[in-house]
Amino acid sequence: MRILGLIGSYRKLGNTEVLVKEALMEAKRLGADVDVLRLTDLKIEPCKGCMACVFKQEECRIQDDWGHLRDMLEK
């Protein structure tokens, strides 16, 4: 089993991060493959509406961290 912990809080080492990491440590102890991402550390730009991904089936033209996040979610 794979588990991805997503932390959306701006407070580093705040309650959210502590609880997510605690849950992931227990899941890992039970045999899960775990990863964690702090969403506030990622640079994700809003869609520009160019529609290249829709009409041309191209990858998104925006160069940001969305590709990395998408890859982690697809695992």
Structure in words:
The protein is of the alpha+beta class and 75 residues long. It has one domain (2-74). Helices cover 37% and strands 16% of the residues. The protein is built from 3 helices and 2 strands. A two-stranded parallel ribbon has the order 1-2. Helix 1 links the parallel strand 1 and strand 2 (33-38). The protein is elongated, with a radius of gyration of 16 Å. The termini are close together. The mean pLDDT is 95.
Strand order of the largest sheet: 1-2
- Specify the helix fraction band: 25-40%
What would you call the shape? Answer: elongated
Largest sheet: 2 strands, parallel
Based on DSSP secondary structure assignment, what is the total number of beta strands? 2
Order of helices and strands: EHEHH
Tell me the radius of gyration.
16 Å
**Structural class label:** alpha+beta
- Straight-line distance between termini: 10 Å
Percentage beta strand: 15-25%
Low-confidence runs of at least 5 consecutive residues? none
Give me the number of helical elements: 3
Tell me, rounded to a whole number, the average pLDDT.
Answer: 95
Number of domains as seen in the coordinates: 1
